[in-house]
Amino acid sequence: MMRNDPIKHVFIWPAVLVVLAISIFPLIYSFTTSFLSYRLIPPIPPRVVWFGNYTTLLQEPRFWNAILTTTLIAFIAVGLQYMIGFGVALALNARVPGERLFRVALLLPMLLAPVAVALVARMIFNPTMGPLNQFLSMFGLANLPFLTNGHWALGCIIAVEIWQWTPFVILMMLAGLQTLPEDVYEAAELENASAWQQFWGITFPMMLPISAAVVFIRLIESYKIMDTVFVMTGGGPGVDTETLTLFAYQEGFKKFNLGYTSALSFLFLIAITIIGVTYLALLRPHLEKRR
Amino acid sequence: MTERALTGLSSWSRRLVAVGVLAWCLITAFPLYWVVVTAFKTPPGVVGGPTYIPFVDFTPTLQPFIDLYQGIRGEFFRTFLNSTIVGLSAAAIATAIGAMAAYALVRFEFKVRFGAGLIFFLLALGFYLLFNNNFGVTRAQALLLAFPIALVVAIIANRLPLPGPILGNEDILFWFVSQRMFPPIVTAFALYLLYSEIGRLGFQLIDSYVGLTLCYVAFSLPIVVWLMRDFFEAIPIEVEEAAMVDNVPSWRIFLGIVVPMSMNGLLATFMITLAFVWNEFLFALFLTNSKWQTLPILVAGQNSQRGDEWWAISAAALVAIVPMMIMAGLLSRMMRSGLLLGAIK
User: Any chain B CB within 8 A of the CB of A16?
Assistant: First the structure.
């Protein structure tokens, strides 16, 4: 039942005003700035260049490199998070021994500051003083250049992302699993369906909507990755691990190239929107069919 | 469902699953153990290669924490205080006004004309360009002038029979939540420029309590509205209807009935928001430089400041982590009582 009472405006306006002010203001500001050639250092008066910033950016290899890096990190990390997270959630839901103990530790990683996690990761991945290389050398492997080789560094960042955000997937999937109706499984049991068949025939399709939501949230969040990379590699070696946000930070805050950075952040916004819309469009037929 | 999914498995594969979960548990726990242990090491205990067990491998010491407290590596105590003050107040304000908005979206009917929204955006943009180019005011002034004009015109326009779709509560909710999709760098950078322009008008926002808190409130609101809406929807409406029959005004129904009934939800939302603000890095990086620096910035800076002094880095990381560990304990207790699961669904 919906009421209609003028007091509703008192309830909703504070939140709307704050969000409007903090999101629309900057949006208009950076939208208009993105068509200007505008630097603070050295100070040049702003000049309208229309799409000049955008075309320069689209021809810039560093921009495409950042897009590729961010996409790699996001897709690989989220894919693995989903698989590990779903597996662990299934196991927890089936009450494996020691499940209670695990639940307490479940929430921890995702509540920790990414910068602190990245610092710890730096220590663990340290080639000479870190425990990981010592552990690997027990098996006769050579010291690996974890953070100084481009490919390894990317792998390490992905590993840290998985470590930190798999708990989120576990949490959401567990919540979803607990809402599944029991009688479907009882019927499957009567039909002598194997656990494997039960999973692909019942659990997976019924979990598809929540899976889609979880992957969507994680994908969008992963595209914003910045703090982990900032601390672990600073985008290096070279620009091998530079993500979009880091690239924008370097351009805007180190070089104070305002028009350029605004254009960059708008392209970023457009890219995120395209990815989000494509993802939803691809999934929609599946989601509706299952309902 | 209880022991359903695994009953089809043999005891052998059951054990395999348990081992897998245990392995993940160890992977989760090891880095945490490592940072706790390292924070109590002396310099020789670090440089001589990895050591693991206190009192056996190395002698623990409190020196890193004493150094921290004495501010040898930056104003740690003050930064900790900053993080606490900004975190608590932003989380409290966001939870309060977010809960109000969520309640309004659950219980009252809203109609916003799409045309009015469009008018707002176009007028804000148009007046901003007009003021900025023709009247010689600064960019910040132009924005501050354009915003209220556009808002007032849009509110009036909403009462007119404009063509185009009418947006309801679900759309307003979607608008709130979609704010979370924005890459924060878009806003962070523009906000930094805007804050510094307002600063030139004489009102300091960069590196100030007001500026940082305002920004965090705005960015926590989407999550708060989303979470609280689920909590409020779970409240049986009969109680409120009974109060309405007695002509109790809406704000008293909210404060006297709804808020006490959803106290747990409010608390959980408050804690999640606090964790978000406490860990936030990007906005703090842009909007603070010394006085109101928060913990993540200082912790991130430890790295470059003095190289591989791991005992100090670990102690710093631990200070940033421990409050959240306590929070995880509290939240997982709430989760066990099934409270949070309802919110996530």
Answer: yes
